[in-house]
Amino acid sequence: MATDARPTIRDIAREAGVSTAAVSFALNNRPGISDATREKILRLARELGWTPSIAARALSSQRSRAVGLVIGRPSRSVAAERFFFHFMTGIERKLSEERYSFVFHASATMDDELDTYRSWWAERRVDAVIVVDLLQDDPRPEFLRSLGIPAVFAGDDPGYGAALLSDEEALMETVVAYAREIGVDSIGYVAGPRTIVHSRRRLAAFETLTASAGVRGIGTAAAEYSRVAGHEAVRELATAGMPRLIVFDNEVLCLGGSRELARQGVAMPDEVALLSLEDSQLCEVMAPAVTAVRRDPAEFGERCAALITDLLRKRIEDGARTIFDPAPEIIERASTAL
Description:
The protein folds into 3 domains: 9-51, Orthogonal Bundle (434 Repressor (Amino-terminal Domain)), CATH 1.10.260; 66-166 and 298-324, Rossmann fold; 168-294 and 329-336, Rossmann fold, CATH 3.40.50.2300. It has 14 helices and 12 strands. The chain has helices at 9-16, 20-27, 35-48, 54-61, 75-80, 82-97, 110-122, 140-147, 168-181, 197-213, 227-239, 251-263, 281-285, 297-312, and strands spanning 66-71, 101-106, 128-131, 151-155, 162-166, 186-191, 216-221, 245-248, 273-276, 291-294, 321-324, 329-331. It has a 6-stranded parallel sheet, with helices on both faces. Strands 7-6-8-9-10-12 form a 6-stranded mixed sheet, sandwiched between helices. Helix 6 packs parallel to helix 14 (297-312). It is elongated, with a radius of gyration of 25 Å.
C-alpha cells in the first residue's frame, strides 16, 4: 500500500531531539523556545522538505482556506460566455498562488444564491466570497453583512466589503469614438438587463456620449444574456429605425442579433455594422467576423482574488475601493469594414 512520505512535525521533533510542541512553536513563529532551538528546527524543516498542511491549518483555525463565487445564471449561460470562463481562470490562478481553494456555483435564482451563501458559511466551506453583477436593490450585500461573510464586489460598490470598480464610462467613450472614426451617424446599443447596475451605467454613458457627439443613439436592454434576447433586441431597434452600427453587450447577444439581421435580409456590414463589447473565438467565426472590444477578464479575476486575500489577511480594511481601468482595445474585423 502506498504511504504518504511527506515529513511531519513528529519527524522534525525526532531529528531535532525536541518535543513536538517546540516544533510547533518554531514553525508558527510563537514564543516559548530559544532562538538557537528555533533556528535548528527551521533548518531541519527545510532540509527534510517539510511544508505546512493546509487542511490541518484550516482545522486549527476554523478556516476553510477557500473563496466562493456564485454566478446568478443557469450553468449553460455561464458556459457560453468567454468572460466568465477567463474571469474564473484568473481567480483560481491567483488563489492558488496564495494557497486558497476556489469554490464555484451557478445559480438560476436569487433564493438559491442566498441559500448557497448560507450553507457555505454554516459548513465553513468558504472564508469569503466574490460577488458579480450587482443589482438594483440587491439583497446580497446586506445578507452577507448579516452573516459576517467577507466579500469583494466585482464591478460596483454596494457599500459593504471591498470593491474592484470597472470604468464603464471609459469603455463607452472608446466605442463612441470608434463609431465616429468609421463614419457612422447612428448607433444602436443592446445592453445587458437593466436590473444589473453596470448595464444601467453603460446605458447612461451611451446616451450622454452619443448626444454630446451629435450621433443618433438608440439604446435598449436585453432581458437576459442569450441569443433569443439578441434577436428580440434587434427587432426592437428596427422599430425605431435601424441604426448604422449596433453595439452588443457581449458576443452571445451579438450572435442572436446577427441572425435576426440575416433573417430580415439586412446586409452586414454594408447596411448595418456590428460590434461586441466582449471578444471571443465566437466573434472570429461569425459571418461576418465581428469587431470587438478586447479586455482581459482573467486579469480582472486575478485582481478580485488579490483583493479578497488581502482582505482576509488584514492587509486592507473593509471598505477598500480599487478601480480596474485597463485601456479597452478594439479588434477590427469584417463587421465594421465600411
